[in-house]
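It would be a great kindness if you could assist me with a short task in structural biology. The full record is reproduced below for your convenience:
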Amino acid sequence: MTRPSRAIKEQPSPAAQSQRVIVICGSMSHFSLMLQLQHQLRSYGIDSIAPEDERHLAQLSLSERDYAKMKRRMSERYFRIIRRRNVHSILVANYEKHGRANYIGPNTLAEIAIAVNAKKKIYLAQDIYGELRDELVAWEAITLRGDLRPLVRDLEKEFRVEQQQLSLELPDIT
């Protein structure tokens, strides 16, 4: 027995359509801080993706070539995650490292560049990293200085706009 096909395609609810995700990026030395950011976002009801803990990889007995291949595959996988349609933005855990305030390393800079290219917003957990000021300003990075509320407000505002747009698109069937 076959099911009758539906003439009207059901639309997902506004909440389901706007399930936005934040991707957390940063140095692995800040891994525990990235998990704290994820917990804070969760307390606001915001889904997020944090990287896998890579710190144990340095202890593996891999050749330099194999280690580089593995790092490349992991980076490429995270780049694909950043590009996903449901990703709203990235949140960079840019804390002090090696005496450098607001540190952003080369891999995190690459993740930021991927996000910029994918038209995602860039939020910095702290302030602008001085050595990358020109790029971060040009890429319109938003500094949070330890306060996630501006990010939360941006998400809420975009959700309201999406709901309004959806209500304009749906015909009144009453």
User: Anything to note?
Assistant: The two ends are 33 Å apart (CA to CA).
